[in-house]
Design a protein that fits this description.
two-stranded antiparallel sheet, alpha/beta, disordered C terminus, Rossmann fold
Length: about 260
């Protein structure tokens, strides 16, 4: 968009800016380093369309990925750098008419960092309202449900698995090396495992860089994953930005005083 187009959109009611975070990191032998950034790009557009009053900021393509640094090609920001970038992205949005900034991540590894800086970012960017979606376990559950329709829910591991591979098949099939699909470390990924992963690095668990298995990936699963996660983020934003009705008074208002009362 041009600057004048953004101004016109704000005039016509676009008050929400969506900031997708991502990563540039290895995704096994079959997916490109851009997987999380490509995913975040698409989710942001879908969420903006779903909300109807939102514009999409450029994706922060490099994220917090120290647990992938044992694999060539991976880039990683320090947690403090990622926080500072988010603060800088939002610093002047209110001045141009936005009232809400929404953050989410196409990279699961950013979520612990986002939970840590959420309150600080909100305080720093006032009067802008900051909504940070951080429910990574809900995303993994949505992926499992999508894959389970094909009987493959157990292949969701959270990284370069059947869900992410299916998403890339839905978005950019030419970027998937179909002849290189292979199982990785099978694990029931949750926040507790993610903590171990951040501490020990992915290579300690999975030499090929995969959690779960990409075998069986297809576009139908990918579209289902995209739709489910879009719904999760949009619903969270609506819930956090819904107007709050003032509490009703428990007392009846006093009648207006009259001259007779005063005498």
């Amino acid at each position: 968009m041009t600057s004048s187009e953004v101004a016109a959109a704000i005039t016509h009611g676009a008050r929400t800016a969506i900031l997708p975070l991502a990563a540039v990191e290895q995704h096994g032998p079959h997916l490109p380093l851009s997987m999380d950034a490509d995913h975040a790009d698409e989710l942001a557009i879908r969420v903006a369309r779903d909300l109807g009053d939102a514009l999409v900021l450029p994706t922060v393509r490099v994220g917090y990925s120290p647990h992938h640094l044992g694999f060539p090609g991976t880039l990683s920001l320090r947690a403090s750098t990622l926080e500072a970038i988010c603060a800088d992205y939002g610093a002047h949005l209110a001045e141009t008419g936005f009232d809400t900034l929404v953050l989410f991540s196409g990279h699961i590894g950013n979520y612990p960092v986002m939970r840590e800086f959420e309150d600080r970012l909100a305080a720093k960017l006032e009067p802008l309202s900051v909504v940070v979606f951080t429910d990574s376990e809900a995303i993994l559950d949505a992926w499992r449900a999508a894959a389970e329709r094909s009987g493959c829910g157990a292949r969701v591991g959270g990284h370069a698995d059947i869900a992410e591979t299916s998403v890339m098949l839905a978005l950019h099939p030419e970027r998937v090396r179909i002849d290189r699909l292979e199982p990785g470390y099978q694990v029931d990924t949750d926040d507790a495992f993610l903590t171990r992963l951040l501490d020990e690095g992915l290579k300690a668990f999975s030499p090929n860089g995969i959690l779960g298995s990409p075998v069986g990936a297809d576009t139908a699963i990918g579209h289902a994953c995209l739709a489910a996660v879009t719904g999760l983020i949009s619903a969270y934003v609506r819930d956090r930005t819904a107007p709050v009705d003032p509490p009703s008074s428990l007392h009846q208002p006093h009648p207006a005083s009259t001259e007779e009362d005063e005498t």
